[in-house]
Write a structure and sequence with these properties.
globular, nucleus, Anaphase-promoting complex subunit 4 WD40 domain-containing protein, Methylamine Dehydrogenase, Chain H, WD40/YVTN_repeat-like_dom_sf, WD40_rpt
Length: 344
């Protein structure tokens, strides 16, 4: 299969493999110690995995949760291995400006990460080993733009991460009449559908933080194989909310549900949406906003689902990590809170 990275503003996202591995919570940290639980006769013990400095701006676990990549405000990237010391196994300067988002590629393509910088630059880095030398990280791709367009790239050869082809470019607008020029876009949030099989079409949800209400609302796009193009499926937003700025989007894994679940964070809270799997008589998909979660003091920075699509984790500018779940009646509630402002 091909990988489709989509980058705009502060977000980069890669389509998952057909059978996606478990995802891990990736919480933003200003200064933190990252640990993992270890089983013992007395219960659960903790072991320090990584110690992040005060300049850490974003982090991301690899597919199996054994390696952690951290981006810093000074443009440096650090990679930590859970089996080694809390200090980084590799560290290099990827950008001259702050790194805002860091993502591991799917494991099918080796150990590689993508970094998004504050100046809109995207870079891809691949870990390579030569002879008996220690592994090093090699730059594969750099691109930069801030024109408000959605750009989808396709990897031509999974063994050559420096060869990407622009597959599509379009605006996040469902109504052609509403098309406009270049909006002033601060960031975009992207979430790919966790694909359940080869027969399922590639699709993703995207929302904007821009000065154009038509661009902002979260929309789902699907790739149409017959005409080799991306088509808008549905817009997630009530009429009074469609112009709200989107801060984060997360698509839940689907294990046997008759509908998809997507979480969308705006200034009004975290909206939980149910999207039908089958088209209605008019060809559209049914949507239902089943909950709006509030609790963060300030902007929601990131959303992440667990591997079963049952628990949603959110991080906010207030330094809090919150876990959300629905009870047997389908009512969503706050399950747990982690205060990252507290020193340990």
């Amino acid at each position: 299969m091909s990988v489709h990275p989509t980058q705009l503003g502060r977000r980069v996202s890669f389509s998952p493999p057909t059978n996606p591995p478990p995802s891990r919570l990736r919480a933003l940290a200003a200064a933190a110690t990252v640990g993992e639980g270890i089983s013992s006769q007395g219960g659960m013990a903790e072991r320090q995995v990584a110690e992040l400095g005060a300049g850490a701006a974003c982090v991301g676990w690899n597919h199996c949760g054994r390696r952690l990549a951290a981006g810093a405000v000074d443009g440096f990237v650090s990679v930590y291995d859970s089996q080694s010391q809390p200090s980084p196994s590799s560290k290099w300067q990827a950008h001259k400006h702050a790194i805002l988002n860091i993502v591991w590629l799917p494991p099918d393509y080796g150990d590689a990460i993508a970094c998004v910088c504050a100046d809109g630059t995207l870079s891809l880095w691949e870990e390579v080993s030569e002879d008996d030398q220690l592994p090093t990280w090699r730059k594969c791709k750099v691109t930069a733009y801030s024109d408000g367009q959605v750009k989808v790239y396709e990897l031509l050869d999974s063994l050559e991460l420096d060869k990407w082809q622009l597959q599509a470019e379009f605006q996040n607008i469902t109504d052609p009449v509403s098309r406009s020029g270049k909006p002033a876009c601060t960031s975009a949030s992207i979430a790919w559908s966790p694909r359940r099989g080869e027969s399922q079409q590639a699709s993703f949800a995207i929302g904007f933080n821009s000065d154009s209400p038509n661009f902002n609302s979260c929309k789902i796009w699907e790739f149409e194989e017959a005409h080799q193009r991306w088509l808008p499926l549905v817009e997630l937003g009530s009429p009074q909310d469609k112009g709200d700025i989107v801060h984060a989007v997360a698509w839940a894994p689907n294990i046997g549900r008759p509908y998809e679940i997507i979480a969308v964070a705006t200034c009004k809270g975290i909206a939980i949406w149910h999207i039908g799997l089958s088209a209605e008589s008019d060809g559209s998909l049914s949507t239902e906003n089943v909950a709006v979660l509030s609790g963060h003091d300030g902007e929601v920075l990131q959303l992440e689902w667990d591997m079963g699509g049952m628990t949603l984790a959110s991080t906010g500018g207030d330094g809090m990590v919150k876990l959300w779940q629905a009870n047997l009646n389908g009512v969503w509630h706050e399950q747990a809170v982690l205060d990252c402002n507290v020193s340990h």
